[in-house]
Amino acid sequence: xxxxxxxxxxxxxxxxxxxxxxxxxxxxxxxxxxxxxxxxxxxxxxxxxxxxxxxxxxxxxxxxxxxxxxxxxxxxxxxxxxxxxxxxxxxxxxxxxxxxxxxxxxxxxxxxxxxxxxxxxxxxxxxxxxxxxxxxxxxxxxxxxxxxxxxxxxxxxxxxxxxxxxxxxxxxxxxxxxxxxxxxxxxxxxxxxxxxxxxxxxxxxxxxxxxxxxxxxxxxxxxxxxxxxxxxxxxxxxxxxxxxxxxxxxxxxxxxxxxxxxxxxxxxxxxxxxxxxxxxxxxxxxxxxxxxxxxxxxxxxxxxxxxxxxxxxxxxxxxxxxxxxxxxxxxxxxxxxxxxxxxxxxxxxxxxxxxxxxxxxxxxxxxxxxxxxxxxxxxxxxxxxxxxxxxxxxxxxxxxxxxxxxxxxxxxxxxxxxxxxxxxxxxxxxxxxxxxxxxxxxxxxxxxxxxxxxxxxxxxxxxxxxxxxxxxxxxxxxxxxxxxxxxxxxxxxxxxxxxxxxxxxxxxxxxxxxxxxxxxxxxxxxxxxxxxxxxxxxxxxxxxxxxxxxxxxxxxxxxxxxxxxxxxxxxxxxxxxxxxxxxxxxxxxxxxxxxxxxxxxxxxxxxxxxxxxxxxxxxxxxxxxxxxxxxxxxxxxxxxxxxxxxxxxxxxxxxxxxxxxxxxxxxxxxxxxxxxxxxxxxxxxxxxxxxxxxxxxxxxxxxxxxxxxxxxxxxxxxxxxxxxxxxxxxxxxxxxxxxxxxxxxxxxxxxxxxxxxxxxxxxxxxxxxxxxxxxxxxxxxxxxxxxxxxxxxxxxxxxxxxxxxxxxxxxx
Length: 812
What we know:
Elements: E1 12-13, E2 15-16, E3 19-20, E4 23-24, E5 27-34, H1 47-61, H2 63-74, E6 81-85, H3 97-111, E7 118-121, H4 133-143, H5 147-154, H6 167-170, H7 176-184, E8 203-207, E9 209-210, E10 216-220, H8 240-247, E11 259-263, H9 274-282, E12 287-290, E13 297-302, E14 307-312, E15 328-336, E16 342-353, E17 358-361, E18 373-379, E19 382-385, H10 419-427, H11 433-444, E20 451-455, H12 462-475, E21 482-484, H13 495-509, H14 523-534, E22 541-546, E23 572-578, H15 585-589, E24 594-598, H16 605-619, H17 629-639, H18 643-654, H19 670-682, H20 686-697, H21 704-711, H22 715-732, E25 749-752, E26 755-756, E27 786-791, E28 805-810
Parallel strand pairs: 1-9, 5-6, 6-7, 10-11, 11-12, 12-14, 20-23, 20-24, 21-22, 22-23, 25-28
Antiparallel strand pairs: 2-5, 3-4, 5-15, 8-10, 13-14, 15-16, 16-17, 16-18, 18-19, 25-26, 27-28
Helix pairs in contact: 1-2, 8-9, 10-12, 13-14, 16-17, 16-18, 19-22, 20-22, 21-22
């Protein structure tokens, strides 16, 4: 295979920069940052997975990707560097890389970037875990006992007990396919770690910058060399000497001159030596780029004496988890002085819209990135987030004492970020123009509707409608404080957390109205009063709260008055959603000026059906062969307007061969679909039914002791039943996706909408267990709730025993 060698000269031409958001003079250059391609091959060990995802991958990274690259070039000038921060393949197998590297070559060609300006590093999915497993296992255990000695040994020192230890070379054989492909397919043999100052890990390349007296230093740091299982986080080592040898002059040990750009796959928070690495990198690196977390982020990590700017990009393609994470990339514009020292940075966040099927600027990440662009300036006191021009952005919040990475480092305390959840909801959205128009009329018009409530049964798409309306308003530049109540998602179901998050968002929009002395219980109410006085006669502030029925409360307690006002101030309006069976809905509808959309009413039946049809029409081409029109028609008919029926059926069908996607087998309605899933999971063993019932009742991470209290089982049997139930449902029910949670041997991890539950809540009253007709939920507490369980069981990656077992309690 021949890859493009590039149309532009090898020398990097840095453009004159006359003015950049308050920075006068300087030079600028552009970096295109991508990560996490996870390429599989139809000729490799994951041939079936590659075949099933081919259409979906092409939809994101085919013609629409080419259009994205063209838009980037046309808006802002040419790209100077392309960097890829890990997970090029999926299993580290040689068959992963020909197509993956061809994709990188085509991307560089479209951007007119020569391959000598492409820099790549490996990720944990570029490790072949089947190679030298014994050496990896023993070395990862040993290095934790004396990381300094092993760091010196890895860098080439031969002395003491480690002299002659073959594991140093054996463990690096697991990356051989990756580096061999980089050398042979890309012609980038100079990136090979054996040529680096370290000799085994990472690389360093100096790039000449025309017009500057100092070069650009590109430093590739290998965080994946010790990766090997799903418990990598907290056990990986960057090593002291990989950092020191790659980021300092070889002979003197002094920091490198010019602009220092470092690349790594994992977050610093994922490394056992992450805090030490942050301290060392802060003085030797100007910008650190990373991947792995599948979500874009910009943060300034700071301690008393150091500061480090970190930009993480999202994944190029992620299909394992039902497209839970949005596909993303970044364009980074840097302004340097004549000594190649950084003066300013602009990050342009690009993301894939599953709803509209296009790449565009992502304005939903940060309040200060209104149009998908985040600006930072560097002054005498370090990096600061630049004003966006209207005085409403907040500055970066420096993390104390080298704290761990956070995807919302410059958000005010209490602000809960729902970006990933909203993106997941928008994947399902289609149609609903009538509902959105009605919401616009009530919320933005001159009427007296202080409250607008969307109600509907399980799976009718209430949250999706709110997410879509919110996205449209934010796209127009409107600030919308919002909260999606999801049990066990960052304490989002706690009334105090709801009020604090809404207040933090409102204060970010109106910083001059913030009262630092306000009592927590009255902070939001008093703030809305002050905002009301500030608003003009026709201005509106809309507050969105989804999932009122998910709010945590003790039996008999109404939690709504703890975060919703009794009287809504003039100009303030609330948009809420809940199930119609929620017992405290009557408190809300008793307020004055309430308008309601009830999706269960006949007047919305055709719209519900159109939403389901829109979902299937957008997914039909993902199948090979595409779903026939009669099958789609039957799926629409049997969903009966229930969007979740379509989503769950689609998830199940993706794992089935074409011969089993039969119209006559489609369950009629959501209840029948869930009952069938339950029956398939529990038809062989009563203990599986008991274990799944136990998980269904749990509303937080479940210990052996609480399991025993709930079911009067011994702790061993309780945990065994729950783990067996999760494994069975993953294997038999065909429910798509797995999530990394907590080992079942110590704790059953519970996830709600993709976020791991931690024991941060007070003890909750137990729910009643249910039978197969009870919709996999507590009969008296969660009518219509579903549970999605999974276990990562992969014989080629560590045996047949169940991996990390989790329960996803999905509010329908």
